[in-house]
Amino acid sequence: MLLSCGCSAPPSANPCANGAGLDPDECLLPWPSSAFLVADPTTRTGFRVRLPASLMPENEFNVPLDPAPWSSWDGFSPMTTLIADFAAAVDTTPLPSWHDPGASLAADSPTVIVDVDSGERVAHFAEKEDSPEVAAGHTTLYLRPAARLAEGHHYAIGIRNLKDRIGSPITAPLPFAELRDGKSSLLDSRRADFERDVFIPLIHAGVDRTSLILAWDFRTASGRTAWGDLVSMRDTAIAIAGANGLGCTVDSVTEDPTDPEIFRQIQGHFTVPNFLQSMDKSVRLARDPQGNPIAQGTTEAAFLAMIPRTALNNGARAPLWIYGHGLFSARDEVTRDFGRDTISKAGAIAAATDYVGLTASDLGGVIGAVEDLNRFPAILDKLRQSIVNTVLLPRTIAGACASLPAFMVNGVSIVGTTGFGYFGNSMGGTLGQTVAALSPDVNRYALGVAGIDFPVMMPRTTMWPELQAFFRIGYPTRLDRDLLLVMSAQLWDLAESSAFAPHVLSSPLPGSQPAQLLFQMGLYDADTTNVASEMAGRTLGLSQLSPNDHAVWGLPQVTAPQQSAFVVYDLGAARPPDTTLPAPVENGVHEGVRRDPRAQSQIVDFLKSNGSVVDTCNGACVPMH
Length: 625
Prior knowledge:
The chain has three domains: about 35-220, no CATH class; about 225-415, no CATH class; about 420-455 and about 495-625, no CATH class. The model is unreliable at about 1-15 (pLDDT under 50). The chain has about 625 residues and is α/β, with parallel strands linked by helices. It starts with about 35 loop residues before the first strand and ends in an 18-residue tail after the last helix. The protein has a nine-stranded mixed β-sheet with strand order 10-11-14-16-15-19-20-21-24, with helices on both faces. The chain contains 15 helices and 24 strands.
């Protein structure tokens, strides 16, 4: 059981009491829910999240989860997954799948999400938790919107007409059944709200009230709640750094005459405004009395730059590309074969810094955070500092660094000062969407094997079993872990692409400009699930390059050339099982796309000045022979 409420209510009452969720045993379910919102006229939405401290999960060390990080929000994450638990083995066959979220818009869909503000149905897909730890005769059900929901909107959810695996109808949990049927219950104080906010919107959407086995509502937060800190940090950092950056120090220069591709590798540090301070045995953002992030002096961030031999051939300054590394990797990832090959084809200089908080050296901190999620916000604060560092990197390399001998050949700087690009893979592609929404200097982004929504991606990656082992130590109850992963979307929104992707191609954030994107997905990728990549494509508002052998639901089909596009690479991997668990084997797709010469050429053509997304596969990107 998620939480023991210590209640002695009669069997017909909700032992989680008034103000909790509708599940008679799991007090925070279903999630997210307006049961955990209070009116607050001081917020942008008029609401504020309030999670009772007494209902928050405790870890194995009896440390309760602090509700404060959620209580600062004026609604729930628009990237949230919806989660409910049923005391039955639900037959999930009729549910809409991630391959076809459009099935959820059918009149008879068993699951319904309604945007109450617009009256429109919301495309989504449903899946059950496939962990072997799910108790026999139980089903944990997820409803995942096909794309990020609208900010500051009201949503009603209905689940109806489900059956178990032998064909018997699933019955509603008692607290909800009493609300639905107008019977007296401990939830009578919420009856009027349910009639107005849940039942009436669902009835208007064509849902028969008597068919419902569970229904509830929630409201999403305003956008600024998620992206406001990083926009403020970016503005402050740019004002302090100026056009050329604050400073650059070269630590080492390596030249290998036998290296056929790379002329010079440079390691160093660049000066950036520091937004972090030590507090409570952790590192958190420094804030002014009003709660806004503030810079406290400067700090040094590490960088690595590579100059390919082809950058020396044309006598002009070489274009500068920023590279984004993957999860638990670091800036030196760019020195691997695919990074060398790609910049050599382009004659482009590559520079990379670390996404601190999620590098290889941060793994111990991440393990500590999955054992006690109260430590997790500190990781995201480090990550936000790193994103600001990444935003400042191109102007610093092209400014303060370019005047140093390490970036000169025959006494002349070879670093281009305009037309910067960004390319990244895996987490570097995912966080590249955040950088794209913020950077005033880079407007072209080539994102490889990326996704959106870490709570969806992480349990499916081949790296998850190792982290899961520590997560299980910290939170031994399986349903605790499932719920906490879903709840963490609200924290990830502060840095991950979820809150930033809708503002990349259009609707730019304050002080930003629209960008162009090449998004390359590897079909059946075992590390970044296609589920998350396709969600990213829809959230970004991309169109898919055609012809292809895997059409993504919700992406318009277009032909090359395009300013921005979603491109699917089929490298011949077998389709994995449809499950919420990691792929059974590492199939090579995650690494294969970045090494595919067609994908590399596509990046080169896209990132060059006035480039576009072109067809480098002579049709669908299927296995080469």
